[in-house]
């Protein structure tokens, strides 16, 4: 007597009973109309459906990764040697007993496996595991390249059509244009790159989803990149209210409200947003605690800031996470020195610089930052001070002053132990400035290579390498070899 079906068989039978496209359409439509509970309930019923994992946030990332890997196993269970088998069958003019429908089904499974690798790479990038993300990405590219050896045009069309139906690529494109592109400086210092495309998408979606917290959130991102900070704050507040049933979206809205408040140097509002994230979010309480502390200190509450900096050590959990490592080192240092409001403002300006947010600051706020930093004379922070002053002057268009500050930062040896990234970042910044003129282009390229090859083991090294790669690529476009 046969025993009960295995969980895998049950899942496969269940998957055959649902229409993937209809399930995706219903779930995404619910989510975009702020029906978060309904959407979550629907996808929970089909937990092994691959797109469910792409919709999971923050502390559920591990569950998302597990679900994606389970989906891979389900698809790969009978796929051993599938590419070679199908290639041989095609060479023999399909003189096998396996039908074309079965072959297409197997190829679809291969594409789903590759898609799972895409989403695993995205999750790795989101968790700041850049090297892991690149490794996984190369794996899915290898799978796609293998399947391209045979005629699977219909399968590719099926996958693309399905992906287009689920997302219409809208959310992915909005994320790319408003988060990835400006953050990694994929278009140099052009902070407006991609915004026209993002605005066109939002204009279309506003007609269908006028109150969607997700699209309102991305509207705020566009406004922030256009330096319309007050409008961005209003959009993030609206998105926060519409997302009353979705804690994760509330948290990304609070995060942006905190950042916009830092950009406006409204440290008290920034403190309140980051403090709530520190208490509610499970993603990186250590990082949020550090932001809470520097904003609290910058607002004048130095004793409160010291108490928060002591909490950072307790909240430090992920030793391999570069953001938490950075937050821990900074909090530990500020805890040991004679804390001043100026040092906390330095900490705020530093994260604005590292997260490419100085470009969103108004001239008046940049001038105010410049004024505060000029009065800072703490010896171990001089290199960092000059790097940030150079970045501020560059944003203000004072290139000569920017070059002078970057040169001083690059020469700083005393503060290298506390601020290991200052020298390579200074070389990068100086190199980018010199690229702007034909007569100094060669020197600029040399400095970029110096920043890439002469330094290692510093904070946010991967992040800088991506930006250096982008800058060097821009030279090749202008002066092709």
Q: Would you write up a description of this structure?
A:
- With 481 residues, the protein is mainly alpha-helical.
- Helix content is 73%, strand content 0%.
- Among the domains are: 7-167, no CATH class; 361-481, Serine Threonine Protein Phosphatase 5, Tetratricopeptide repeat (Alpha Horseshoe).
- The chain has helices at 7-17, 20-32, 36-45, 50-54, 61-76, 82-91, 100-126, 130-147, 153-167, 170-183, 195-208, 213-225, 229-242, 247-263, 267-280, 285-298, 302-315, 322-336, 341-354, 363-374, 382-396, 399-410, 422-435, 441-453, 461-478.
- α14 packs antiparallel against α15, α19 (341-354) packs across α21 and α21 (382-396) packs antiparallel against α22 (399-410).
- It is globular.
- The N and C termini lie far apart (72 Å).
- The model is unreliable at 6-16, 48-59, 79-87, 128-141 and 143-168 (pLDDT under 50).
- Belongs to the TTC39 family.
- The chain crosses the membrane at residues 155-176.
- Keywords: Membrane, TPR repeat, Transmembrane, Transmembrane helix.
């Amino acid at each position: 007597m046969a025993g009960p079906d295995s969980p895998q068989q049950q899942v496969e039978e269940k998957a055959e009973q649902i229409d993937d496209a209809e399930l995706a359409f219903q779930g995404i439509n619910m989510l975009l109309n702020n029906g978060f509970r309904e959407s979550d309930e629907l996808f929970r019923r089909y937990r092994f459906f691959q797109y469910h994992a792409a919709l999971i946030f923050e502390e559920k990332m591990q569950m998302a990764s597990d679900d994606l890997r389970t989906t891979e196993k389900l698809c790969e269970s009978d796929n051993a040697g599938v590419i070679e088998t199908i290639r041989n069958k095609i060479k023999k003019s399909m003189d096998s007993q396996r039908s074309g429908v079965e072959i297409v089904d197997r190829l679809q499974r291969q594409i789903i496996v590759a898609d799972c690798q895409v989403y695993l790479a995205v999750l790795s990038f989101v968790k700041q595991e850049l090297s892991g993300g690149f490794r996984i990405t190369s794996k899915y590219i290898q799978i796609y390249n293998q399947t391209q050896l045979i005629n699977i045009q219909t399968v590719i069309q099926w996958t693309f059509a399905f992906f287009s139906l689920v997302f219409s690529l809208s959310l992915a494109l909005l994320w790319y244009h408003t988060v990835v592109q400006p953050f990694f400086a994929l278009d140099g210092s052009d902070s407006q790159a991609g915004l026209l495309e993002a605005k066109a998408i939002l204009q279309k979606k506003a007609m269908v989803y006028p109150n969607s917290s997700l699209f309102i959130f991305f509207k705020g991102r566009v406004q922030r990149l256009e330096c319309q900070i007050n409008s961005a704050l209003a959009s993030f507040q609206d998105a926060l209210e519409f997302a009353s049933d979705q804690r994760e979206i509330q948290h990304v809205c609070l995060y942006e409200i905190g950042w916009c408040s830092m950009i406006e140097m409204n440290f008290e509002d920034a403190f309140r947003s980051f403090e709530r994230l520190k208490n509610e979010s499970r993603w990186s309480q250590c990082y949020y605690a550090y932001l809470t502390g520097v904003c609290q200190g910058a607002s004048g509450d130095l004793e409160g800031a010291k108490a928060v900096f002591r909490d950072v050590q307790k909240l430090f959990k992920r030793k391999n996470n570069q953001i938490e490592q950075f937050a821990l080192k900074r909090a530990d240092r500020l805890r040991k020195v004679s804390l001043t409001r100026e040092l906390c403002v330095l900490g705020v300006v530093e994260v604005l610089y590292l997260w490419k947010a100085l470009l969103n600051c108004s001239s008046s706020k940049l001038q105010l930052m410049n004024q505060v930093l000029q009065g800072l004379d703490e010896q171990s922070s001089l290199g960092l001070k000059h790097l940030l002053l150079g970045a501020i002057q560059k944003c203000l268009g004072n290139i000569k002053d920017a070059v002078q500050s970057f040169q001083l930062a690059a020469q700083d040896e005393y503060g290298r132990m506390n601020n290991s990234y200052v020298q390579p970042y200074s070389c990068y910044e100086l190199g980018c400035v010199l690229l702007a003129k034909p007569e100094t282009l060669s020197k600029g390229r040399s400095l970029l290579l110096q920043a890439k090859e002469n330094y290692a083991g510093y904070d946010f090294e991967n992040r800088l390498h991506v930006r250096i790669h982008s800058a060097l690529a821009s030279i090749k476009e202008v002066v092709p070899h």
